[in-house]
Amino acid sequence: MKRLFNYFITILLIVAFAVPTALAGGSAVNDSAVNGTGSSSSTDSAGAASSAVASQPKLMVYTYSLDTEYLSAGSTGTLSVSVYNTNDTRQIRNLKMSFSVEDHEIVPVEMGTKYLKRIKANGWYEWKFDIMALETATSGVHPATITMEYEDSDGNAYTATDTLIITIRQSVMLSYDEPALDARLTQGDTPTFSMNLMNTGKSTIYNALLTFDIPGISNGGSVLVGTIEAGESKTGTTNFRVDSDTLGKVEGKVTLTYEDDFGKNYTKELPLSTTVEEKVVAQAPVETQEESKLETKQIAMIAAVSGVVLLVLIFLIVRAVRKKREQEEDEKRL
């Protein structure tokens, strides 16, 4: 009985000490939970801010294309621009798109702007409009800008831009003097050939080259005229040599090759012709026997006359010397 009573007292003591401890522990847990709730609230706030940033609708040019490979100066083409709302949940409202080119050498045919009421989340829109390259536009690539101004569902305003590349080509216009050789040449002649090239277009001409193919007439090889700027003229010059065994009608050609700004090759073949005549060697004239005798008589006569004149001169000189001496002697006597 006494043991049972002691056991009962022990249980009461354990319960008496355990309950306050449990209550204190519960209070600590509750305080921790309160603090945890506060911390959780802070995390939720940052997450909400992050979510708000993540939910900002973003608009971008997804793809674009021109209905021609390039724009020729003075021509028009249709440009297709597809814009895409990358946001999965939020739509775009009050979209205004604008097309512009900094150098103004490409312009829209009509209005270069487009208004759209909305683009749904994950949605896209294709904008088609005509553009024109000016007659004076520079040949090459031209950056164009698509500017997109829009709002989200809360009325927040955003602006996005993307760059497109559009190619313009100026027509290549090369004029030249009609090439020609002298109508008649002689075997062994070394005539000079010149050909004037004129760039009458608005683009640059590169690697202008003259190549000759004339049977029986040779030259030092091809003639590189080189680069010809718009509005500039250059001359290609070479020397030919007519072969000694060439005779009669000769027909050949000169091939003109050149490139444009984009490396495209152009070729023109132009005919050349002439007539080669035989070279005549001049012969020394043959003297007749009578002409030879007459020439001998003339020489003899000239020699005789020359001898007489020489004798007369000698006689006069001697006489003058003698007379001078006599005068000197007479002066001494006096």
Describe the structure in your own words.
With 334 residues, the chain is an alpha+beta fold. 29% of the residues lie in helices and 43% in strands. The chain has helices spanning 2-54, 289-333; strands at 59-66, 71-72, 76-85, 92-101, 106-108, 113-119, 124-133, 140-151, 157-169, 174-176, 184-186, 192-199, 205-213, 217-219, 223-228, 233-242, 248-259, 265-277. It has a 5-stranded mixed β-sheet, with no helix packed on it. Strand 17 and strand 18 (265-277) form a beta hairpin. The longest helix has 53 residues, at 2-54. 16% of the residues are buried.
Question: Which characteristics define this entry?
Answer:
disordered N terminus; single chain; five-stranded mixed β-sheet; 334 residues; 43% strand; alpha+beta; 2 helices
